[in-house]
Amino acid sequence: MERAAVIVAIDGPSGTGKSSTSKAVATQLGLRYLDTGAQYRAITWWMVNNGIDMDDPSAIAAVAGKPEIVSGTDPSAPSITVDGTDVAGPIRTQEVTSKVSAVSAVPEVRTRITGLQRSIAAGAENGIVVEGRDIGTTVLPDADLKIFLTASPEARAARRNGELKGADVNATREALLKRDAADSSRKTSPLAKADDAVEVDTSDLTLQQVIECVVTLVEEKRAGK
Ligand SMILES: Nc1ncnc2c1ncn2[C@@H]1O[C@H](COP(=O)(O)OP(=O)(O)O)[C@@H](O)[C@H]1O
Ligand SMILES: Nc1ccn([C@H]2C[C@H](O)[C@@H](COP(=O)(O)OP(=O)(O)O)O2)c(=O)n1
């Protein structure tokens, strides 16, 4: 018998392990994978590149429909392009990271990107793992399984710092907390745990333990438990 497509939503703040967990779970279970943060970073990269005034939400809103953003959903080789240009590297710069919360707070940006996300999820035949901030609450409220990852600010900053060579861990922690506050307090679909999400604190878990926990939860759902 054909298995029905399974939709898994994984939300949480930065550095909780969303991307690493989602990619591994999708690979293990033969599902597609979508990094929605990369889409918000991509539209932000386009705004920076086109000299849009980041302090003016109406200027951001006016051009929200312009860039063509395409996400590749193979979990072993995820990709992202803007108007045909590969932006996987440039969307991770400090400049984009510092501006992405302002751009992603603009309702017109969210409507545009949410539409892309829903059509990608609907087209995933076997199912998909979608990670972000508002997937369980807003983008895919009917997801089969919702996970909300958390971790202490110290654990998250230490993990992020491991990726940024020579960065100061206290500065990294402050920047993370600032972005969390902006993402959690915006009016349109803020970072939040859905009422029916399973919360997993990853502070004292290895990545492997988190992956196993999520795979087990998906398998239980599929078995109808
Ligand atoms: N449970 C964990 N324990 C230790 N390191 C982890 C764990 N989960 C993720 N990491 C590492 O922390 C960093 C951030 O993880 P990532 O998956 O990018 O988080 P997010 O997508 O939530 O920002 C990566 O370098 C990753 O390998
Ligand atoms: N579903 C989402 C995903 C990300 N965002 C915004 C808010 C986040 O600070 C940025 C960047 O997300 P991303 O997941 O790439 O962030 P990290 O790499 O985990 O630090 O995008 C969002 O508003 N909604």
Automatic annotation (TrEMBL):
Subcellular location: Cytoplasm
Enzyme class label: transferase
Swiss-Prot/TrEMBL catalytic activity: CMP + ATP = CDP + ADP; dCMP + ATP = dCDP + ADP
Keyword ATP-binding attributed: yes
Sites where the protein binds ATP: G12, P13, S14, G15, T16, G17, K18, S19, S20
EC number from the UniProt entry: 2.7.4.25
GO molecular function, one term: kinase activity
UniProt KW keywords: ATP-binding, Cytoplasm, Kinase, Nucleotide-binding, Transferase
Keyword Signal: no
SUPFAM superfamilies: P-loop containing nucleoside triphosphate hydrolases
Domain Cytidylate kinase: 8-219
Cross-referenced InterPro entries: Cytidylate_kin, Cytidylate_kinase_dom, P-loop_NTPase
Family of the protein in this entry: Belongs to the cytidylate kinase family. Type 1 subfamily.
Matching PANTHER family: CYTIDYLATE KINASE (PTHR21299:SF2), CYTIDYLATE KINASE/PANTOATE-BETA-ALANINE LIGASE (PTHR21299)
NCBIfam families: cmk (TIGR00017)
Name of the featured protein: Cytidylate kinase
Annotated organism of origin: Streptomyces bluensis
